[in-house]
């Protein structure tokens, strides 16, 4: 039995409402843009991250030797491993950053849209902080195992270098207990850690990672949004009648770099603790997070807590700049095209549905 035709206006309004509800609430594109941007930033800046990891972990691996400076560490990596040494662990690094970038930006934009649509009174910098922290926490289930594999591969260097170091340190520090073996790649690293230590090994330092990344993620998006507000305020105050438009890609590059660098410095002590807990392997130097804090502070003082802060900032300023730049670029150049395509589909619906009937 045929039912009366529905007016094309009703079909158009209903379809438009469904499309807008989908895109505005879940903002699926932000997950894609965030993943691409996160992987891009990590891949570009991985060599600096390798230096930071080695500087922070050298007291565990070479406790009897003088600690190297940043320039000495760069030279050491180049002499022993060559260019390849700077890119050890890039596979798990990019994988982890892809996952975290996707959840970070996806959750932030989804929560921002939800607040704007349903709870405008909850807006502000606290909402940005919570959204960033939640997005990063969701990505941690993939990011932390990748981080463990990445950092262990970063400190190993060449097979010859790692074998000689393990033999020397085993004899000096704890005879009879071997450190983990050499990893030929990401898959080998994951399988070896699982076989030797189980899930506990892959998630080594999980809580210390969250203790570092939750504040960092929250601070970074808060600083970024605050800097955007300051930029907008300055433009309105000093150039009220100007039609000059700041390119969002350039804005992401500059403000993202500032936000990332400031957040990175403030969370450096948390990064030192996390790195040492993850690098130590089965030969435990630290019994846990609090033990690491106490021992680092007592033995090395404030300098130890902020060890590696310079390469960390050097890494995060351009990495954050590139990540936010990439996200803003993708938003600016692709979101509009996707929206236009959806509008065209809606516009064509009345023509396709005209004269059609719904059959019960």
Topology (elements, then pairings):
Blueprint: E1 2-3, H1 8-26, H2 28-61, H3 70-81, H4 83-86, H5 90-118, H6 125-156, H7 159-172, H8 186-197, H9 199-202, H10 206-238, H11 248-266, H12 268-279, H13 289-305, H14 309-353, E2 358-359
Quick overview of this protein structure:
It holds the Pfam family Mito_carr. This protein is 79% helix and 1% strand. It has 360 residues and is an all-alpha fold.
Summarize the amount of helix as a percent range: over 70%
Question: First CA to last CA: what distance?
Answer: 6 Å
pLDDT average, as an integer?
A: 77
Oligomer: single chain
Order of helices and strands: EHHHHHHHHHHHHHHE
Q: How big is the Rg?
A: 25 Å
Q: Name the overall outline.
A: elongated
Q: How would a textbook summarize the main sheet?
A: 2 strands, antiparallel
Structural class: mainly alpha
> What's the β-strand tally?
2
Unreliable segments (pLDDT under 50, ≥5 consecutive)?
8-19, 171-177, 349-360
Spatial strand sequence of the major β-sheet: 1-2
What's the tally of helices? 14
Portion in beta strands: under 5%
């Amino acid at each position: 039995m045929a039912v009366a035709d529905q007016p094309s206006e009703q079909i158009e309004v209903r379809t438009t409402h469904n499309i807008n509800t989908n895109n505005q609430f879940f903002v699926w594109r932000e997950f894609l843009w965030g993943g691409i941007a996160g992987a891009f930033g990590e891949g570009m800046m991985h060599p600096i991250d390798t230096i930071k990891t080695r500087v922070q972990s050298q007291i565990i691996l070479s406790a009897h030797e003088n600690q190297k400076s940043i320039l000495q560490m760069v030279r050491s990596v180049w002499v022993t491993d060559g260019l390849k040494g700077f890119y050890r662990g890039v596979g798990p690094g990019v994988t982890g950053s892809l996952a975290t970038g996707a959840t970070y930006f996806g959750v932030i934009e989804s929560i921002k849209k939800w607040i704007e649509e349903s709870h405008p009174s909850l807006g502000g910098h606290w909402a940005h902080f919570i959204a960033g922290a939640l997005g990063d926490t969701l990505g941690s289930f993939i990011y932390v195992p990748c981080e463990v594999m990445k950092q262990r591969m970063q400190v190993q260097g060449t097979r010859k270098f790692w074998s000689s170091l393990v033999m020397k340190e085993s004899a000096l520090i704890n005879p009879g207990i071997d450190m983990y073996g050499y990893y030929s790649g990401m898959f080998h690293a994951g399988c070896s850690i699982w076989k030797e230590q189980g899930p506990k090994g892959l998630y080594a330092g999980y809580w210390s990672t969250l203790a570092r990344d939750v504040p960092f993620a929250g601070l970074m998006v808060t600083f970024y949004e605050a800097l955007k507000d300051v930029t907008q305020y300055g433009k309105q105050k000093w150039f009220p009648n100007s039609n000059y438009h700041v390119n969002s890609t350039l804005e992401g590059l500059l403000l993202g770099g500032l936000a990332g660098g400031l957040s990175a410095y403030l969370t450096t002590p948390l990064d030192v603790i996390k790195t040492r807990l993850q690098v130590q392997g089965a030969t435990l130097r630290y019994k846990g997070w609090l033990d690491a804090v106490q021992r680092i502070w007592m033995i090395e003082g404030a300098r130890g807590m902020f060890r590696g802060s310079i390469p960390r900032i050097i890494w995060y300023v351009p990495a954050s700049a590139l990540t936010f730049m990439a996200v803003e670029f993708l938003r600016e150049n692709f979101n509009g095209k996707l929206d236009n395509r959806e509008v065209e589909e809606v516009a064509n619906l009345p023509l396709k549905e005209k004269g059609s009937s719904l059959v019960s």
